[in-house]
Design goal:
about 375 residues; mainly beta; 14-stranded antiparallel sheet; two-stranded antiparallel ribbon; 6 helices; 20 strands; elongated
Length: about 375
Amino acid sequence: MANSYKYFTDNDRVSIRTPLYESVSLNSSSISQSSEVNLYTGSSNMYISFYDGAASSATSNLMFDMTVARNTTELTGGFQLTQQNNLYKQFSKILYGPNSTGAIQTLDLDFDDDSTNSYVLNNAIFLDFARGKIKDEIRKGTFALTMSVSGTAGASAKYVYLADVSGATNYKVDSPVGEYGALYVVGTSGASITGSITDTNRIQGLVFYQAGTVVLSPYIFSVSSSNAIPSNVNTFLSSSQAGILLSAMGATTLTSNDGATGNIGYFLTGSGITGSVEAVMRQIGNVSFQSTTEINSTVYFCRVFNNEFNFSANPTYLSSSQIVVKGGDPLNQPVSYITTVGLYSDDNQLLAVAKLSEPIKKTPSNELILRTRLDF
């Protein structure tokens, strides 16, 4: 190993970021679960965790946590109102932050910069995906979810399809947890939808990319006028499209794992949080997105000039004070073979070692640039 060092300048290194994408897909047969072995209910009974295998197994991986919440200005009374309201405040603080006066903000699906809040979300469904699945973030424009609005998720169910179709370019950055995009209704299995796909009245959820949190409107489930949820709040589509959808699919009846049935309004007020989550989870079809892992790298350009590193510190390089590789002819050029690059700290402490795939010949008549990449 050579005992001389060469210092890097700012021109000899560059920092780069490389995103790596991985597809994540959950199908309806695994999520709508006929049994509860994949589920874990916390002792607080305020959420349910879904695993890709038996929740009690050490080899199973957490996929997402799910809960429901409601504001006290709508659907008052019923079971766990205080807990649901506390959850609502918690998610509002985390995802939206307080307003200018420090008060809790009402969740809003307007996805615009006005203050009208015409699409307020006083009740909400939250899916919080595991960090091990989203990695650094959910890739914008790749999130898609299907939701059964007629019967439990399965082959015979009718679905609504949601996706952040404009997420790659049309996203917001005013959340404390980073960037977020809108989930638009992009189609149904029971009715056609016309008009611009970016119509704001098609927004039925938000996806927070770095946080890995998805906020869904409970109004995605078709409701009749007799249901507890007001039919004029956050209308499912435009009036004509809503008429098509409602006539095709009818009001949605949900079923919890213990066999209780009712509309979404019933579960939010007449059932505990875990009962509501079970009922909604049984309606989820396929979920897919791409996770993102950002590889931060520093590339060091190790420049070896013609008059550098032409000799070796290997003891066998010399014999009787003569350079062995010259073959006894003092007129021959010295020769060395570079096999390793060492990166050192300012106080000459070895930090990283890069090995070449094969030795490279170095003489006073050639120059080299060795590109060394350090990922972290």
